[in-house]
Amino acid sequence: MNLFIGIGNISNISELKIAKNNQPFVNATLWTTNIGAEKLQKQIMVMFQSFGNIAYELEHIKNDITKTDEFLVIGFANISSNFKGISIEKIIKINDKTDINNFFENELWKIL
């Protein structure tokens, strides 16, 4: 698995679904120019899935998200027989740059 960190706007959040293992999930899209430490010149689209509590959270806020809202999205890229894609571990709404700094200083190690 590879760590995925992206900052951008979330859109296209699907309806809440139930997987074969009875776990709730949603599909969504992250529009970003920031992937990891690289700064790209153009916006790219990253499709991802969120499971469990994060799926419920996205389902709850999806109608309140605007195009100017930015989120820090952290997860793992995974390719297996059961799942291929990016599975999200944490989503943080960014109000200002201190939200990003606080995550890297206090929260990232808990996910790893």
Mean pLDDT value: 84
Helix content: 10-25%
Shape: globular
Terminal Cα span: 11 Å
For the largest sheet, list the strands in their spatial order.
Answer: 1-3-4-6-5
Order of helices and strands: EEEEHEEH
Radius of gyration: 14 Å
Provide structural commentary:
The protein is of the alpha+beta class and 112 residues long. The chain has a domain at 1-43 and 63-91. Helices cover 22% and strands 53% of the residues. The protein has helices spanning 52-61, 97-111, and strands at residues 2-11, 17-18, 24-35, 38-51, 70-79, 84-94. Strands 1-3-4-6-5 form a 5-stranded mixed β-barrel. Strand 3 and strand 4 (38-51) form a beta hairpin. It starts with a strand and ends with a helix. The model has no long low-confidence stretch (mean pLDDT 84).
What are the salient characteristics of this protein?
single chain, 112 residues, alpha+beta, five-stranded mixed beta barrel, 6 strands
What's the structural blueprint in terms of helices and strands?
Blueprint (H helix, E strand, L loop, with lengths): L1 E10 L5 E2 L5 E12 L2 E14 H10 L8 E10 L4 E11 L2 H15 L1
What's the short version?
The protein has two helices and six strands; from the N terminus they run E-E-E-E-H-E-E-H.
